[in-house]
Amino acid sequence: MSSDNIAGMENEENCEIGLSPEDLQRKLYFLNEQLQVMAKDLPLKYQQRLPHELLCGLAESLLDNTVFGIVDNLMDIQHVTEKQLFQQRLQFLNKHTLAMQELAMDTRMDDVAKTKHRTLLQATHRKELQLFDMKLVNELDKKVCDQQRILEMAGVPGFEVTNDPIKIQVQIRLLDFILRLSQMQVPP
C-alpha cells in the first residue's frame, strides 16, 4: 500500500473521529500514559499479564470513544440483569417464607408434628435455595461470556471468552481502567 493511500486512510479516520492528527496523538499519548500508571498500581500478578503492547493497543482502541460506549452499554445491561436476578431471588425467598408461615398457622398439626415438618421444610428450602443460587450464578456467568464475546468482537485488546479466573480478573482490571479513563478529560 502506498504512503498516499495510508495518509488518505488516516485522514478519513481522523475526520470520523473529528480530531486533528496532533490532537489524536496527544489523546493517544494521554491514554497510554494513564493506562501505564494504572497498571503500575496493580498487584504484580496482574501487572505481569498486562504487557506494554497490550496497553498500547488498548489506548489505540479507545481513541474514537466507541469502546467507552460499548462498556457503558454493557454496564447498563449488567445492572438491569443483576436487579432482575435479585428480584427473582427475593420472590423465591418470599415463597419459602410464606410456606413457613402457613405451617405455623396450620391448626391440623400438633407442635411436635409442626417442629418435625418445619425441620424438613427448612432442609428442603436450603437445597432449593442452593440450586436456585447456582442457576443465578450460571446466568451471570453467561452474561460475562456475552460481554467478553462483545468486547473481543469489537477488537478490544485483552478480551477473549474465557473461564480462567486470573484472565477474568485481568479483564475486570481492564474494564476498570476503561471506566476510569471515560471519566477523565484529555488535557489540551
UniProtKB/TrEMBL annotation:
Top-level taxonomic group: Eukaryota
Protein name as catalogued: Gonadal protein gdl
Pfam families: DGCR6
Family indicated by similarity: Belongs to the gonadal family.
InterPro entries: Gonadal
